[in-house]
Specification:
alpha/beta, six-stranded mixed beta sheet, two-stranded antiparallel sheet, 6 helices, 18% strand, globular, disordered N terminus
């Protein structure tokens, strides 16, 4: 998920741009730290669908965000749809303004930057390890989202396109698993949302 050239909320191409209230002077006041995060820095604890739902509920209550504003993709969506039993964390995309509001509200958090994975561009990220949630700056278009099991998820087609775009070994395995469990990708569907 990204604020970049994937059809998400960012109006610009290339590097994400800090909102005006986070200029050089206020960035330090908000304790904003620009950091590159690698996949190896992420925790590898497993979450079931019940734990995902509980963590989302606790997160939305703590930060007063409507659950519908959170677009769950990657492993969280794989678990919710029943393709996998567990995931290491919950990757969530939000609109750019919601992302920066969260960054401001959770000012003790580090705003990181993830290098692009596969054909996905770099993006900003906020980690909430107590909920095993990573908030990504950017949300898929509404047509690529579906409410399921009380969660707002990327549709199966959008999830498959995300796995194609990321192209890591675990994404290739997830694509094969989706097909083995009856998923049929639509040929010629649009690029990653």
């Amino acid at each position: 998920m990204s604020c970049q050239s994937t059809g998400y909320s960012n109006r610009n191409r290339g590097m994400a741009i800090l909102p005006p209230f986070l200029n050089n002077t206020t960035a330090s006041w908000y304790k904003l730290v620009y950091k590159t995060i690698t996949i190896s820095e992420m925790t590898m604890n497993s979450l079931t669908i019940t734990e995902i739902q509980a963590n989302i509920r606790a997160f939305t209550e703590a930060y007063t965000i409507p659950a519908a504003a959170l677009a769950i993709g990657a492993g969280g969506a794989m678990v919710a749809y029943g393709y996998r039993n567990t995931t290491a964390d919950i990757d969530i995309g939000v609109e750019e303004d919601v992302f920066w509001e969260l960054a401001s509200a959770a000012s003790e958090r580090i705003v990181g930057r993830i290098n692009g994975v596969g054909s996905c561009p770099p993006t900003f990220i906020l980690s909430f390890p107590e909920y095993k949630i990573d908030i990504h700056c950017g949300r898929p278009p509404q047509k690529d989202l579906a409410a399921y099991k009380g969660l707002m998820l990327m549709t199966r087609q959008a999830l498959y396109r995300q796995k194609v775009a990321m192209a890591r070994p675990k994404d290739l395995a997830d694509r094969a698993l989706m097909r083995r469990k009856g998923f049929k990708p639509v040929l010629g569907s649009s690029k990653l949302p």
